[in-house]
Design a protein that fits this description.
The structure is a homodimer of 180-residue chains.
Chain A (H helix, E strand, L loop, with lengths): L2 H10 L4 E2 H8 L7 H13 L3 E6 L7 E6 L1 H10 L8 E3 L1 H7 L6 H33 L11 H29 L3
Antiparallel strand pairs in A: 1-3, 2-3
Helix pairs in contact in A: 2-3, 6-7
The first copy, chain A, binds a DNA duplex (28 and 28 nucleotides) through α3.
Chain lengths: 180, 180
Amino acid sequence: MNALGYALLSMLVRKPRSGYELKQLLEVFWQAKHSQIYPLLTKLQQEELVTSELVGQCGKPDKKNYAITEKGLSVLKEWIPHPPAIPVSRDEFLIKVNAIGLTDIPTAKALFEERIAFVNKKVAYREQEIKSMEQTLGEDVKDISSKSFGRYLLFHRKLRENREEIEWCRWALSLLDRSR
Amino acid sequence: MNALGYALLSMLVRKPRSGYELKQLLEVFWQAKHSQIYPLLTKLQQEELVTSELVGQCGKPDKKNYAITEKGLSVLKEWIPHPPAIPVSRDEFLIKVNAIGLTDIPTAKALFEERIAFVNKKVAYREQEIKSMEQTLGEDVKDISSKSFGRYLLFHRKLRENREEIEWCRWALSLLDRSR
DNA sequence: CTAGGCATGTAACTCGTTACATGATTGG
DNA sequence: CCAATCATGTAACGAGTTACATGCCTAG
């Protein structure tokens, strides 16, 4: 079992989902293409960690809904207390920042401004998700017994991270304004 | 050319480095094992983006110092203004957070506390790096014309990110304390 | 005396991305 | 009419990790 496998299982705890849905929902904490997700789900099914059910839809293509099994649940439960692997983040933008001295100030500023725009979109989406969780679940979402507690924590994590990045971009822009 | 290649080039702008050194210095914005770095440096040399020089040392093994060429510099310069790829971050800890509802409160708390300890080490290292840059370069480090400006921005970025994560962990812990 | 740092390299493998492949429906 | 969304899959490739391989020096 690899990390993506556990990520998929963790998404299925709350309720059954299709591969397509899983891809979207995963975005906040693990990025994967459908070409990686679909074969993995088949493999998880072979290992009896999930079951699948074909669901016909009207006006949309059929989909396969996956549900976590008892075995899947216990495998996931067992995995949680183990010390997690060191996180990796790979961000081309930061390579460009490292080499920022090679460009002129307008190019450098444009880089940061585009980044702010990019992260702002994420902020808006996170805020909306958090709001909708709070509206449907109320104060319960802040309790570990809530099925959405983990996801709620995650969205807060990412929202804070994104806001923090924007502040840093603005600080960098202010240094660029004072440069040379 | 892939992103790691640009990352290596960006590190060589300030001064020549060995593969071993590059691995350490890269840590702040791109993680790679030596088994990926050494062959890539050979490839970069074949493409004449870097040159290498064997340096004998006393009390230590010999090393290969790589320097960026004019061609390497122009390739890197040309790359900077292009829109960067979407950042990816993969963090097993966040998968565990997503599935946190499956564990008991003590296990959950231990997970966050270990994370705080892990990130605290990073914070200490970042702070020390920033301090040493400020001491050796003074206010100049805050100007784009400084050779360390990019790296200085980077360390601030990561320090802020790390501090932010610790705050979030504490908030999560406070919710766990109030739970059930 | 042994664990860890310095220093470089290759081979085998897994993980992740891009491209190929199909097809219906909806909104602009 | 064209682009996007929904929906699933495979094949080929590139990126990244683990393991294999070597060897000297230093500090506890």
